[in-house]
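queue> pop job 88
queue> type: inverse folding (structure -> sequence)
queue> payload:
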């Protein structure tokens, strides 16, 4: 077989072929984070979310307008730089073997599509210790809430019991604001270093292809999600739902939270489906919780 001549045109064609595979892989990823997180573009190394925890509300207009300040917290989410790089030996290109590597770049595309999930669900799983905007863990029994008379009370979005049982999470995802913030400074970009004049190519005889991004995941409003590691039963779910519906803002008004989703690890998939997907129970009785929330089984919570 004649030896290929490595030229800029050939390397561009190879890159375009790998990019096609990469784009195909992007479409193969199983995405779970899209509903639970809101995407916020970032213009700096970090963003300060001073408005978190502040709510707006209508009042009877008497006298001048009352300006509702959105400042009050200094919760900061820092962007982190992530990369995924593959080297292709130029001997493989000369021997016309580069076409065999397309599967690797398709997998890289799938890994890229799923990378936000790995960060977001790891963050959520750490929610009993990682703090949110009010300085408390995201899931905590002592979130401070101030009523209309200025009295501060501790409010909970966490129900626990001993035994190390898996957590399940109930969320209101009907609103513009979401429980999790997905912050993007630089979106995922598939790039190459493959010119013969590049120092790494010269030293190692390798063409490099990779993806990098500057992104981060952080907690939004704790009021929008409840966590429990009690047994997933109808009674325990109803207690969590009631607690969520009873939440009030700092001015004492009901937040009108409406639980729409339950996120469970694979270990609780059967329990969740029996609880929320069966229309009949107990030999023919109607299941009052059928369709009460959308069940989402998240493998990253395993």
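queue> result:
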């Amino acid at each position: 077989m004649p030896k290929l001549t490595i030229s800029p045109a050939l390397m561009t064609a190879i890159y375009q072929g790998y990019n096609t595979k990469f784009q195909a892989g992007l479409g193969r990823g199983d995405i779970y984070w899209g509903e639970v997180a809101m995407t916020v573009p970032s213009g700096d190394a970090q963003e300060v979310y001073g408005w978190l925890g502040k709510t707006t509300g209508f009042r009877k207009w008497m006298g001048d307008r009352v300006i509702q300040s959105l400042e009050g917290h200094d919760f900061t989410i820092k962007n982190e730089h992530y990369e995924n790089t593959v080297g292709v030996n130029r001997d493989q290109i000369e021997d016309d073997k580069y076409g065999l590597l397309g599967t690797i770049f398709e997998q890289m595309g799938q890994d890229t599509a799923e990378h936000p999930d790995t960060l977001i669900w790891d963050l959520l799983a750490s929610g009993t210790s990682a703090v949110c905007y009010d300085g408390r863990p995201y899931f905590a029994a002592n979130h401070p809430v101030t009523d209309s008379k200025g009295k501060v009370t501790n409010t909970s979005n966490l129900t626990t019991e001993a035994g190390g049982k898996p957590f399940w999470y109930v969320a209101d995802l009907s609103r513009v604001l979401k429980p999790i913030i997905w912050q993007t400074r630089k979106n995922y970009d598939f790039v190459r270093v493959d010119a013969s004049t590049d120092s790494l190519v010269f030293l190692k005889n390798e063409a490099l292809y990779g993806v990098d991004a500057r992104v981060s995941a952080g907690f939004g409003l704790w009021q929008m999600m409840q966590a429990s590691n009690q047994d997933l039963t109808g009674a325990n779910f109803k207690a969590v739902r009631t607690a969520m519906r009873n939440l009030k803002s700092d001015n004492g008004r009901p937040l009108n939270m409406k639980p729409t989703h339950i996120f469970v690890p694979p270990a609780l998939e059967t329990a969740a489906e029996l609880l929320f997907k069966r229309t009949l129970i107990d030999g023919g009785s109607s299941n009052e919780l059928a369709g009460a929330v959308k069940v989402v089984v998240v493998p990253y919570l395993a």
